[in-house]
């Protein structure tokens, strides 16, 4: 019988991009809830630092150097996690980012965007999520259960000005989420769910240059973002964790193929 159960303790989560601010926070908070966490990141020292903090606080975590654009690296990471914990219940595709060279600015117009930077943004956000899900998802398909969480964006719904590569990539992530949810259910198991969260605006390394000036004050774009966010502030990384825990729990057992806004109302308000 169905019960409203938010408990995810005892589960094993593999998180890519876990050395970063958002997914590092996700790893810390999930560990506090009793999740065994594998922090996967290309920059091992960043992930290892967070894993050490988790262990020091009584949690269970390992750090694994992982390149989400290299299948052999992903397979090695998957095998290491399974060797350590025996299974993987949750995959969080958190690796992602943007580049100023793929963003229109006063110095770069659309006609002179760096195409290599444009491809880098798509590869990291889209190809990285697809390839990681191919490698780790095969394990979920064989065991017949599991959760995949992708990180989409408010720009998955409507493109934002200037961030042409990032918006297109995150729209693809949302579409991939819906496609994969259907694919796993129809071909492997209806106990595998694939969902995404769509964060609103947080001040992170990838967008700080767009939203704040060197003196810390808001740019014109930052002022417009806050004006269109009914809650009137930026989100905090920790505020992304609750929705992820919900989506991974039995409380969300009939939630599949969803892209959940976590945006302070940004997507609900048209500015009038």
CATH architecture: 3-Layer(aba) Sandwich
Uncertain spans: none
| Helical proportion, percent range | 40-55%
CATH superfamily: NAD(P)-binding Rossmann-like Domain
Alpha-carbon distance between the two ends: 45 Å
Compose a concise summary of this entry.
The chain has 272 residues and is α/β, with parallel strands linked by helices.
Provide key terms for this protein.
Rossmann fold; alpha/beta; 7-stranded parallel beta sheet; 272 residues
Descriptive account of the structure:
- By secondary structure, the protein is of the alpha/beta class.
- It has a single domain (12-200, 235-261), classed as Rossmann fold (3-Layer(aba) Sandwich), CATH 3.40.50.
- Helix content is 42%, strand content 14%.
- The chain is built from eight helices and seven strands.
- It has a seven-stranded parallel sheet with strand order 3-2-1-4-5-6-7, with helices on both faces.
- Helix 1 (21-32) packs parallel to helix 2 and helix 4 runs parallel beside helix 5.
SSE diagram, text form:
Elements (H helix, E strand, L loop, with lengths): L11 E5 L4 H12 L3 E6 L2 H13 L4 E5 L5 H15 L4 E4 L21 H29 L2 E6 L12 H24 L4 E8 L8 H4 L8 H9 L12 H8 L10 E4 L10
